[in-house]
Amino acid sequence: MAGRIKKPWAGRFKGQTDPRMDRFQASIGFDKRLALADVAVNLAHGRMLRRLGLLDDREWAAIETGLREIESDIRAGRFEFKLELEDVHMNLEAALIERVGPVGAKIHTGRSRNDQVAADFRLYLRSGVDEVLAGLKALRRVLVRLAREHLEVILPGYTHLQRAQPVRLAQHFLAYFQMLGRDAERFAQARARLNRSPLGAAALAGTTFALDREAVAAELGFDGPVLNSIDAVSDRDFALDFVSAAAVLMVHLSRLAEELVLWSSQEFGFIEMPDSFSTGSSIMPQKKNPDAAELIRAKSGRVFGHLTALLTMLKGLPLAYNKDLQEDKEPVFDTLETVLPILELLPDLLVGLRFREERMRAACLDGFLEATDLADWLAARGVPFRQAHQQVGELVGYCLDQGKRLGQLSLEELRRFCPRAEAEALTWLELEAVVDRRESLGGTGRSEVVRQIEAALKELED
Ligand code: ARG
Fold first, then answer.
1. Backbone angles phi, psi at 195, to 5 degrees
2. Is there a catalytic annotation at residue 264?
3. pTM (predicted TM-score)
């Protein structure tokens, strides 16, 4: 076909690829994200070829200049990616040859796209993980800030989504602080494992050139080479590590988002969403919808899907490289591009929330959240706990029939069900007292929450 681009691998071919095949197999539409990483890999590889004498000074100077020009074109959005050149690697190599002439064709000495793509992908993901880690830190900082600012706010804690026991709002935020801390650990571990260089593995077996794999690894900021050449080009467990860490993170973010949706409903009325992260209805003028939180909740699904896609793509693949592996990129890119915008907006959304403390408090006073404490009070005075539980249960049944709260009962009514009760039991049931009694390690009592906040602040300093 006249005017068609000659493929770098076309030597043994007589026919052209079908344009449908070109479109079908091209990865350039998505792997152009790797272009800057590919430049960095080319530069490190080229410098090493120069040191080995496989390029002379003049050749290396030309290649380096060409690569730098390509780099600035990419940064400026001027670089023209061509579909017929399949992927980012062949696009860059062809551009280099076009700029510097046949010497550019020396850059592919001692390597393959197989080790090249694995290196590019790891570099790209490494900086993605660093952005995720920075975002997680900012989010955790906001959670601690909210905990400090709302230390005295008490709301119902739930089990089975039924009011259970009163807790500090700070305790609730600090629970997420802990979850996200473990997420950060998972990402940091993923980063540590991915930071190894596959370069020098070439197609799968290593090369006949005495490449300095350590030097190239060091130049690219890797902790060292992936030792085995077959492993280096064929495994993508580093992508699995990343997407699975992201999937767990999305579980946590989705739970937080769900609570924002619930709490902002009229039924709960615990928070008001900031206008800046809400939307209205095109038909119902009164509506204010928590779309940001709903989308966070929903987007967890696509990340879980990406994890399944990656696991499925990898399972059963014979060693070493298979073109299947080209399908590793979109799930990872989309995971990153799903998680990062969430981490970018969630801190401001949380800071913009208005907490309706009076509604939270009122909810604590309605629903017998202090019933456990009355049973505990009786148990502390020798009533076997199971018996105390039964007595208080019957008392609650009585209150429900009478439309009364525990705090509204007379001592006489109380004693009808709990013969060991005394007047002191009623003051024992006041809300603050109920919460602050929970000073077991990590509990919701004031002193323990303050301790958690201090530990959190210290952790964020490191
Ligand atoms: N675009 C390819 C990928 O993403 C690059 C590696 C191609 N290697 C090959 N042997 N065809 O996997």
1. -80, 55
2. no
3. 0.95
